[in-house]
Amino acid sequence: MKEKLSIMILKKRFFKFPPYLINEQQTNPLTKDLYLCELSEVLIKRDTLWSDQLKLDDHLLIFCTKGEGIIQIANDLVPFRQNQYCIIPRGFTFKLQSGESDPSIFFTCKFNGEKTKIMEKDFTVVRDLIPSTNNLVANRIMLFDELFNNLTKGFYNANYLYINLCFGHLLATFIYASRTSDDILEEQNPGISRAIQFMEQNMNKKLTLDEIADEAGYSPSYLTTIFRKKTGYSPLSYFSHLKITKACEYLDFSKLKIKEISFMMGYSDPYYFSKDFQKKIGLSPRKYRTRISSKKN
Fold it and tell me: What DSSP state is assigned to residue 121?
């Protein structure tokens, strides 16, 4: 990405490791296998072309947290939307045309290291992120925030070692957790797909197991058995994770009151919503919403 961007593309947060520190990371036994080179949060206006004209010197992770677009990697054009990511290998160029959402928001990481050659087979493909206990979109955003927060503290040795270890954790939540999720999606039968789609279309309701099973075309007991086998969750537990992930989006990108969000997610009691949110995310809705501003103050 060019350092001078038009007003259509805004780097809300941006940090780039200086060359001398990249050199240190390449020789440090703790970082040479995998190290972070650049981190950014990019806001792109609708119908805007975002492109890096030169071949990438480092691998580039792009994670869409809001909006949509079309991404071109080599000669392939692929739709790209919220809660999807891809990793563009070094040596490639890319173009991304944003869609109608305004703005679209992307987190990006440039990274490198000796062991990235082993990972390259998992790069390029645009992948979905589906919810699970250890694989929530909200947790990734918190890891991005942790990286941004520590990068403001300077490039002393202990700090950048911590940053790189955190980045390794973040990258693993994309490559390996999502591979498991994709395997689930490829193996699941049409009934499970119908059940998940039904949940996504009715997040504002308090669905019963009988209603979900009826939509899937199975008995409640059979749906629970095959759903748990394929996803690791009961249908109602999976539905609850979907609600909390959507609530995180509202907390991040809207000014809706927590009480309003709880009702929109089908919770009749805001207290129970807060309790469920705390259990899954590790923070109350209020603390989750203020986590970024509190770091800046």
Answer: G
Residue 77 three-state SS: strand
DSSP 219-268: -HHHHHHHHHHHHSS-HHHHHHHHHHHHHHHHHHH----HHHHHHHTT-S
Question: What is the set of domains in the chain, with CATH numbers?
Answer: 9-180 (2.60.120.280), 188-296 (1.10.10.60)
User: What are the pLDDT digits (tens) for 213-263?
Assistant: 999 999 999 999 988 887 778 999 989 988 988 888 888 888 899 999 999
Structure tokens at 86: 């891809």
Q: Tell me which residue of 52, 32, 53 sits closest to 42, measured CA to CA.
A: 52
Residue among 182, 203, 52, 40 at smallest CA distance from 111: 40
Computed over every residue of the chain, the mean pLDDT equals 83
**Which residues are 78's β-sheet partners?**
71
Q: Where are the beta strands (DSSP E) in 45-122?
A: 49-52, 59-66, 68-73, 76-81, 84-88, 94-98, 104-112
Q: Provide the residue type at 251 as one letter.
A: L
In percent, how much of the chain has pLDDT > 70?
Answer: 85
- The CA distance from 116 to 33, in Å, is 7
What value does the mean pLDDT take over residues 144-155? 86
- Give the model's pLDDT for residue 172: 85
| pLDDT tens-digit readout, 73-128 | 777 778 888 878 888 888 888 888 888 878 899 999 999 999 898 887 767 666 66
CB of 59 closer than 8 Å to CB of 88: yes
96 in Cβ contact with 50 (< 8 Å): yes
